Each structure stands twice: as structure tokens, then as C-alpha cells.
Amino acid sequence: MPLPRRTRIKFCGLTRLEDVAVACALGVDAVGFVFAERSKRRVSPAQAALLREALDPFVASVALFMDNDAATVRDVIDTVRPTLLQFHGDEDDAFCAAFGLPYLKAVAMGGEGARADDLGERYPHATGFLFDSHAAGQAGGSGHAFDWSRIPCDCPRPWLLAGGLHPGNVFDAIRATQCWGVDVSSGIESVPGEKDAMKMRRFVEDVRRADAIANPA
């Protein structure tokens, strides 16, 4: 008998306590705090620590980096106490694994796209991967999607789909890709860093609608 599927949901780029409260009320699995220097959604470790303290039990906190130095990563870990790390830059496995926490590695699928056929070899300690629409060297959160058919069919770890997701397309995205999880930022915002409660609710509802079709009674 096939196991029932439940698509995990991560809301990323949270900067306000009211958005954390809505995310928790909607039952998302994780929220992301961005520390990438070029991001419009960047928060300080002190700001993120306050947001982290407002999370409900069983809601994971994810610290997102992009080519930050090791001292910055350690400062965030000490101050915020995240559940998981997420790396979007040119970090190698040794760097990502050096901090003693599980990590996700983002794979840039925009532009010519990064190599995705040997992820397990290049990142043997990764807990999972995130396929995003940004091009190599660019920040995420652009609001643009990529060609989902380019996702490798034999990814060795659980993986999340990101890039251009919003309430209007997440149902189709899950049905088309059978992704383990979805990661959304700009698609649930009114302006960068400020989430829209109605968009957040609609996004979760459509994820659950896709799961309900995949798990008929």
C-alpha cells in the first residue's frame, strides 16, 4: 500500500512577528530567516532571535546564508539557535557540514542551470536539496519560476521546490513535480519582507488540496 504524501511547507524571508504568528497558525513546517547580505529580506541575528522565540513547538527555524563567512554563520547559530541551515552560494560540503547542524543546499536552476546529476557526491552530508530559479551567483526571492522538467528524477535526498511559487500555481507545481516540499517567499508578500496573510492562507490551502487529491479516501 503506498504511503500517504504530505507536502512540507516552508515560508521564507520572514521579518515580522505578525507574519510568524500567521505562519504558525496555518501549520507550516518551517520558517526561514535570511542572512544573505544582498537580500531585501535580510534580518540581523538579534531580530531573528526574537522571531525564533515566537515560533510554536514543532515549527522549524531555518537560517539562510549565501557565501557568508564562517564567523557570521557561527554568530547566527549562537544567537538564533536555528533548527536547520540553508546555503545558497558556492559553499562546498565541508563548509556546510562544519557547523554541526543539518543543512539544505540550494541548487541554482536559472540561467544555464547548475549541475544536478551528482548532488549526492558533491554534498554527501546534506539533509536535503532545494531547487530554486535563481541563476548561479544571484540571490533567490526573484518571483520567477524555472523549467520544472529539469529537476533530476533521481535526487538522493528529500527536495523542495522554490522559485516563482504563489497561491495561483503551487497546486499545479506539486502535481507536476511530486516534490517533497515547497518553499515560498515573494509569492506570499505584499512588499519584500512583509507577508500577506490572505496569500499565506491561500497558499497553504492549495498545498493541502494537492495532497488531498494524491491521497483519496
Question: Summed up, what is this model?
Answer:
It is built from seven helices and ten strands. With 217 residues, it is an alpha/beta fold. The protein has one domain (8-214): Aldolase class I (TIM Barrel, Alpha-Beta Barrel), CATH 3.20.20.
What do these coordinates show?
The protein is α/β, with parallel strands linked by helices and 217 residues long. The chain has one domain (8-214): Aldolase class I (TIM Barrel, Alpha-Beta Barrel). It has seven helices and ten strands. It has helices at 17-26, 45-53, 70-80, 93-97, 119-122, 170-177, 197-214, and strands spanning 8-12, 30-34, 60-65, 84-87, 103-108, 128-132, 159-162, 181-184, 189-191, 194-195. The strands form two sheets. An eight-stranded parallel β-barrel has the order 1-2-3-4-5-6-7-8. A two-stranded antiparallel ribbon has the order 9-10. α1 (17-26) packs parallel to α7. 41% of the residues are buried. The mean pLDDT is 92. Residues 10-205 form the N-(5'phosphoribosyl) anthranilate isomerase (PRAI) domain. It catalyses: N-(5-phospho-beta-D-ribosyl)anthranilate = 1-(2-carboxyphenylamino)-1-deoxy-D-ribulose 5-phosphate. GO terms for molecular function: phosphoribosylanthranilate isomerase activity. It holds the Pfam family PRAI.
